[in-house]
């Protein structure tokens, strides 16, 4: 298919530690179309950031991709040399980091930081052109261009995060990975940023991988939703479907962890227990110890994805046997 | 600008504002204070906890002024009656003490248990917060427990002295999403069982609606609206509450349906806007909003709003 931008296949990535290998991303596969927004939801430590850093090839020194493929419009990024990936990164795909407060260099003006990104990738661009482009980008994210020579500490948290978005988009990439871009912000500022991201996406038609633990936000903005737990995607499908008909017991538990703003207030339960230690992952389904509907087989075996409805897939033995839908 | 002095001045004014509207908390009630960061929610809790002394205004606890003679004579008793649960479960517990060491302190300080009873008391309170079997936890250090477990220890420490009022400052915001509801349910459980009152501070509107009987909305150091929880959410009067409401994620709606009507950010509290503090961002601002500070106007018996639109 020509409109497929990114295809991640059986990706296994993680960290080498003194106590052994931690597979933070364990057999993850998904596809992303041009202009599509995929939301990746999960709790802390479930591997969602490692997944982002793997795709960006930005894993720390003790981290590595152990196997799998990351196909980006025809190229397998896993095979790229360090030099090739340096060329590729930011030009074709870029990232908005979680803590804008720390991601910007505090002793450099934001103009220098924006122009730096341009100059690193577009050899021969003149200072004047670069500055003009930086100004345009700032205006795109609703920051007046006279703030271009401000230092990060002179901007509010929301503005810093918008500068990060401007920086991610300055080379017009096809894919922007956003790792909890609004988590540290207040609700109203968060809403502003999200609206801005949506406007930019419809204007420039880039794809987004949006990572957060805030499922209620994710359901609202995503086209496609993946639920991650202990390094694995347990359920994936169109966001509206997952919201209206969550299948995996973990997804159901997560949905039952966000009190609604409207309608009746019902007693909610959350999920007891805690995620497994990834140094010694359980043999079967990683959710087994916390699952209310566990069966004997789940202890030792992990099922494959089963497609139940259009593109709505789930990894759970409850749905393996027949084509029954609740 | 006399920055620090001004800042303290602000706090006075803010506490006075609370006094103005006779913000009261009933026995066994959960009152949620919501607002963005910098709106003064934590200061509210800290003032009630006697961590900051208000320069003007009065706070009555069981009919007694908390800086008055009666309470001052019995300060330890006030401390016992008013306990806190902090936001950061990792930072709130001494990392060099075991859970046993952390949980025996309140019993010893307030003289609530003999040495010989301590172990049994600690185990009992651990069971109450769902850390079972208690033997497994009592000799652990904080770093050996997860965030959710640590927050349970924090709650255990607070309820062990049988408080009357619990100040919970964003007790779930640093926890994993699947644990948050469990901690909230636990807070409700102790309210139902022991009739504890809570001042529950949060920035999460949906969470406030879930847990609280009443909600107070703060903005830039002032209380803007106060009323029954469901009424505040479903039928918000103040334009700021309406803004908060529309900014909260709503999965049941399509994203494009609700657009924000307001731009801008919380004003600096060193030099707050004149008149209503929300007027620079308010979509319904009238000329006089920048001149006159609105009072709390009564909408109905339980619901008050600080907005000139509702002046009788």
UniProtKB/TrEMBL annotation, chain A:
Per the database record, which ranges form the ABC transporter domain?
A: 6-255
Q: Which GO terms describe its biological process?
A: peptide transport
Q: Do the record's keywords include Nucleotide-binding?
A: yes
Q: Entry's Gene3D superfamilies?
A: P-loop containing nucleotide triphosphate hydrolases
Q: Tell whether Nucleotide-binding is among the UniProt keywords.
A: yes
**Which PANTHER family does this chain map to?**
MALTOSE ABC TRANSPORTER, ATP-BINDING PROTEIN, OLIGOPEPTIDE/DIPEPTIDE ABC TRANSPORTER, ATPASE SUBUNIT
Q: What is this protein called?
A: Peptide/nickel transport system ATP-binding protein
- Organism of derivation: Halanaerobium saccharolyticum
Automatic annotation (TrEMBL), chain B:
Q: Which GO terms describe its biological process?
A: peptide transport; transmembrane transport
- Keywords, comma-separated and alphabetical: ATP-binding, Nucleotide-binding, Transport
Q: Which SUPFAM superfamilies match?
A: P-loop containing nucleoside triphosphate hydrolases
The question of whether Nucleotide-binding is a record keyword is answered with yes
Annotated ABC transporter domain ranges read: 3-245
Database matches in PROSITE patterns: ABC_TRANSPORTER_1 (PS00211), ABC_TRANSPORTER_2 (PS50893)
For this chain, the family text in UniProt reads:
Belongs to the ABC transporter superfamily.
Name-wise, this protein is Peptide/nickel transport system ATP-binding protein
């Amino acid at each position: 298919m020509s409109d497929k931008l990114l295809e991640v296949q059986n990706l296994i990535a993680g960290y080498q530690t003194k106590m052994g290998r931690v597979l933070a991303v364990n057999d993850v596969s998904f596809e992303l179309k041009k202009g599509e927004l995929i939301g990746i939801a999960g709790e802390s430590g479930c591997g969602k950031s490692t997944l982002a850093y793997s795709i960006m090839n930005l894993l720390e020194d003790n981290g590595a991709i152990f196997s799998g493929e990351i196909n980006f419009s025809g190229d397998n990024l896993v095979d790229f040399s360090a030099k090739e990936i340096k060329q590729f990164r930011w030009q074709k795909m870029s990232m908005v980091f979680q803590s804008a407060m720390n991601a910007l260099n505090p002793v450099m003006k934001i103009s220098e930081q924006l122009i730096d990104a341009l100059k690193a990738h577009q050899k021969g661009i003149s200072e004047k052109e670069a500055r003009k482009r930086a100004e345009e980008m700032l205006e795109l994210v609703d920051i007046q261009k006279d703030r271009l020579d401000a230092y990060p500490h002179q901007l509010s948290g929301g503005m810093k995060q918008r500068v990060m978005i401007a920086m991610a988009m300055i080379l017009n990439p096809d894919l922007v990975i956003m790792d909890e871009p609004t988590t540290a912000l207040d609700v109203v500022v968060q809403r502003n940023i999200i609206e801005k991201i949506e406007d930019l996406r419809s204007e420039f038609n880039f794809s987004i991988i949006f990572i957060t633990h805030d499922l209620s936000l994710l359901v609202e903005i995503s086209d496609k939703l993946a639920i991650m737990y202990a390094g694995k995607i347990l359920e994936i499908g169109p966001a509206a479907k997952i919201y209206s008909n969550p299948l995996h017991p973990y997804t159901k538990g997560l949905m039952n962890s966000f009190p609604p703003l409207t309608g009746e207030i019902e007693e909610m339960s959350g999920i007891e227990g805690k995620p497994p230690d990834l140094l010694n992952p359980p043999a079967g389904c990683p959710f087994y110890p916390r699952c209310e509907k566990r069966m004997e087989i789940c202890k030792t075996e992990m099922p494959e994805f089963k497609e139940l409805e259009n593109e709505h897939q789930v990894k759970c033995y409850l749905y393996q046997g027949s084509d029954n839908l609740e | 600008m006399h920055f620090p002095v001004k800042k303290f001045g602000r706090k006075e004014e803010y506490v006075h504002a609370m006094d103005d509207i006779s913000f009261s908390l009933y026995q066994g009630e959960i009152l949620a204070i919501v607002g963005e960061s910098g709106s003064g929610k934590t200061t509210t809790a800290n003032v009630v906890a006697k961590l900051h002394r208000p320069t003007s205004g009065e706070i009555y606890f069981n009919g007694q002024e908390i800086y008055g003679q009666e309470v001052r004579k019995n300060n330890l008793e006030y401390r016992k009656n008013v306990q806190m649960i902090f936001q950061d479960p990792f930072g709130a517990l001494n990392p060099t003490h075991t859970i046993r060491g952390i949980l025996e302190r309140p019993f010893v300080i307030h003289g609530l248990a003999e040495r010989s009873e301590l172990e049994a008391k600690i185990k009992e309170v651990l069971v109450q917060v769902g850390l079972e079997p208690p033997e497994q936890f009592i000799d652990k250090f904080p770093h050996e427990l997860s965030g959710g477990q640590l927050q349970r220890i924090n709650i255990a420490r607070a309820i062990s002295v049988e408080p009357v009022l619990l100040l919970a400052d964003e007790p779930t915001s640093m926890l994993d999403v699947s644990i948050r509801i469990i901690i909230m349910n636990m807070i409700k459980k102790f309210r139902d069982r022991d009739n504890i009152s809570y001042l529950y501070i949060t920035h999460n509107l949906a969470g406030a609606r879930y847990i609280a009987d009443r909600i107070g909305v703060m903005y830039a150091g002032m209380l803007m609206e106060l009323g029954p929880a469901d009424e505040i959410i479903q039928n918000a009067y103040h334009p700021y509450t309406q803004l908060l409401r529309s900014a909260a994620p709503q999965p049941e709606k399509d994203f494009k349906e609700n657009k924000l009507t307001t731009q801008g950010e919380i004003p600096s509290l060193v030099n707050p806007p004149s008149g209503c503090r929300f007027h620079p961002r308010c979509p319904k601002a009238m000329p006089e909003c920048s001149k006159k500070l609105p009072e709390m106007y009564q909408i109905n018996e339980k619901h008050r709003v600080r907005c000139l639109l509702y002046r009788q």
